[in-house]
Amino acid sequence: MPETTPVIHGPVAPAPPVGVLAGWAVSRRRSGAALTLSDHSLLAKAAVKAPWQGALADVLAVPFAGTLRRTAASTELLLTQPGPGEWLVLAPPGEQTALVTWLERCAADVDELVSVLDVTHGLCLVRLTGAAAPDLLAKECALDLSERRCPDRTALRTAVSRVAADIIRDDRDGNRSYLLACERSSGQYLFDSLLDAGAEYGVEVTGFEPPGVTEQTARAD
Amino acid sequence: MSMRLGPRVGEVIDRDEPLSFTWNGRTYPGYAGDTIASALAACGVRVFSRSFKYHRPRGLLTASHLDPGCMVQVDDEPNVRGAHRRVRPGMDVRSQDTWPTLSFDVKAANELARRMLPAGFYYKTFMSPGWLWPAYERVLERFAHGGVVGPGKVSALDGNERYDKRHAHPDVLVAGGGPAGMAAAVTAARSGCSVMLVEEELELGGHLRWGDDVDLTALSELRGRVAATPGIEVLTDAVVLGRYDGNEISVLQRGLPHVAERLVKARARTLVAAPGLIERPYVFAGNDVPGVMLSTAVRRLVNLHAVKPGDRAVVLTANADGDATALDLERAGVEVTRVDARRGGDVTRALGRGRVRAVELGDGRRVECDLLVTATGWTSAVSLLTMAGDQPRYDDTAARFRPDASRLPSDVMATGGVVGDGSCAQLVAHGEATGREAARRSAQSSVTASAAPPPLPVEPHPALFRGRTHGMVDFSEDVSSKDLFTAVEEGFRCPELAKRYTTATMGPAQGKLESVNVVAIIAEATGAAIAETGTTTWRPPYAPVSLGALAGRLREPTRLSPLASWHHSHGAAPLVAGAWIRPDHYGDPVAEAASVRDGVGIIDVTPIGKIDLRGPDVSRLLNLVYVNKWSKLEVGRVRYGVMCGEDGVVIDDGVTGRLAEDRYLMSTTSSGAVTVWEWLESWLQTERPQWRVHATPVTTSYASINVAGPRSRDLLARVVDDVDVAPEAFPYMHVRTGRLAGVPGCVVWRIGFTGELSFELHVPAGYGLHVWERLLEAGRDLGVRPFGVEAQRILRLEKGHLIVGQDTDATTKAYGAALDGLVKLDKDDFVGRPELSWGGQPGDGQRLVGLRMSPDSLVPAEGSQLLDHRGLICGRVTSSRLSPALGRAVCLAQVEAALAEPGRQVTVRLVDGGTARAAVTEQLAQVDPEGVRLRA
């Protein structure tokens, strides 16, 4: 039987036009709206569990309910700790093997129980960017997302649109931006709910722009 | 006849923007800024509705949101407050619940039977005979107002777009946008607080809006300060519905451009209640005749909307606002007769029906007029404060209840008219001091020392509640002072009881207009003082709220498999299973089942719960939560397990495979995935924290596909890259990991729920569609076809596999689920062991059995009762289908243990009322009971 290169399908149906990036079917749409929503599920994702305030926590050096950017395994990573002793680590698309390998190497250096799981396929990840992002989220989430309570580089676990989700404040180019992660099967529902809630703010879908984990939006596709 | 006045200094209408709308089918003019009521009143309309019980004509009373006489239907929306809602071009406004017309309402005949309809008549009249209640109900529905959702022009917003919610977390929430409220908001914001300022009216300003030039100057200055102060979010046309523990405050916001109603769920550090005062009506005969208005209503009409409310007026005044109203009317060209209540003046009766024709005064005089204005006192709007624990006290001097600030929690404060009287400057000063203190309490102010607001003066006011005649007390519910006297005579002497007996204060105004009058009249009837009579209790919501606003947008999470788009595009009938949308079948579930028995089929089983277990103590955990043994499970093996609660009741089942020395993959039922994970975490975190185990849900990390049927091995062999699927290399109840269709990281279990040779593939979710399509492509010559949940249920029932939750219930212990052989009481411990050891001897309670029907093609409905030889209920059918393989019904049932022996006969009570006989079978499995096929 002839082999074909399998295309990876994310949890959110990509808005046309559709292309392929790092093996994933992605939307190539580009929106200039002040408030945009994009599917970032193709980012490499790893879930890590280890004792809170244990040795691995020292190695990862991410504050609880916070985030940290660092370069490791020759790639840029966004580390978050939305739950005590639970980390979600993000890397550019296609880097999951390098990501997991680096984390397992970190785990090997500590004498405690550590779990490293590649959850690239298991989580839906969307990015909401724009000044009105907290207003939109206030319709779908009960948490106080004000600057005082939820500044840039905050990671929280909560419910958004009645779905368990991690909210990661990750501003880009000086604009308010949030990454929202939920389990994959609810991803399309969450995406649609955010679009519905954001209609009054003119939210538009925009496609993924790599690498997706840096502070700056890439200008070239 | 136009009653529109010339331009007024503080008017809110825009004369450059005329518009037209319809009222009961006739076109009327208005201006932008008009309310429905003001536009109609400017055209001479006096009657807007009929009263609730007696269908008496009703006109404007308060000309505000509270007005009980102006509830109308707007387009398809009932119960719109016509004295509050701004009129829009083309609006279709109709009167409610009148027949045939508003001016000639047949239901006004109720008034002729008024003596037959006293207070509490419905408690006495509709008690018996009980069988007539449906007829009573239909009659009451016709006569009782409630509005109708639907008739009229459909509004632009569909049902789901009308409502939504948002959350807010202001430091200070100020309820009331009058002078004190605005001042408090500005001061708190200037102290660094985020402030939400909520005002029920359409604009900020409170009573200043219809005041004189001094008031308007103060209003302009205060509004300017609010606008210029960052950190204040102003919500007009919004009302605070309630205050709950932790200062959770619900606010209903109306009339937004994108949504009709929005429920704001605010969590404020400090609540400042500044609701002001509400003018209360005076009780006398004819006080509900159209043309009898409160002084604030008149000032709103004249000064905000430039409407002349009448030509000849009598003004009964007991305060400065009444005096000012008389001056406003005179300036508008109205002939005014003043009756000063402070000097003993009184009104005993208003004469007229559709409009006021004359007034009888306390001194016996009769004055011809078309407008009677009363300014007889105020009610403190203490609702929010009582929700926070306040118990207002009656103040004889002010003739109103006033809050007791000492009872308020530290995160609730009050300012403005609700606290006391005073000039605008005094109210503003009090508001500023309150805002400053609110900021301090919210810890956002650099001012650390407490600075209690200065007290506001309390001005004396005559105690005017009821005159010498009886009149309407609750205009919303048609409850008169005479009704209250009757209630007291019948023993309902407490306001709380009299309220419920008469329904006074229970209408749309929710007591804000009438509660003090109710208390005063009960006090009069009982001979007690008002202070000792007490009040009714204020509870949320402060204002009526639509159910749609409470519900908000429809947010019902749905879960989709990675293959959902394929199922949809291939005509699958959707099945809602919990939150999952699954393919029930693809058109012919019987043929789908047959293809599995005869060849090979594939089914999307992604919803099966999957939990990744890691750590050196996993086997201890498995031994604890499952009733069977797990210590010797080797790497590469899979075992079936059942979990029980501590009461021995079955809570879930599934298989768990050992993928590596310290790595396992547990499967659960689809509906039990979250419950089981929480169950594991509960044991690990609270009972066995020393065990080194990590449990991580990975249900949606994988697309799960079951390949089932005698040709399933052949099919799998065509897509698997590095796993030997030969029987001896990959036996039943084993697990392998490898590449499928080029996809690495897949897990393959050889298990079977259908009773056929089958393999369960767990593929990284993003590749699910690829593998699914490759299976269909590779197995085309094998006749592979997808099958849905219905075919799977047929197949598993033929095989006698139970479904936890369907073939068991909340009382089914392991023995009752025919799992006797699985329960290992010789284990040291497991969850449910004591209960299963001590109280649940095999044979007790009900047992899961197979049933063979007679006639055997009869398929009883699931849930059908089973009867013993005495006709007593002895069980129920839990699952039933027609078996394509056997050509007869196959059933599972729960039946009393004494009747569970093979061959025992029971009677099945059918849905159509008939009965059928059934016999208990030898085994649960009706197809391949020896398991030869699945071990092939």
Automatic annotation (TrEMBL), chain A:
Gene3D superfamilies: Heterotetrameric sarcosine oxidase, Probable tRNA modification gtpase trme, domain 1. This is GCVT N-terminal domain-containing protein. Residues 76-208 form the GCVT N-terminal domain. It comes from uncultured Nocardioidaceae bacterium. It comes from the Bacteria. InterPro entries: GCVT_N, TrmE/GcvT-like. Transmembrane segments: none annotated. It holds the Pfam family GCV_T.
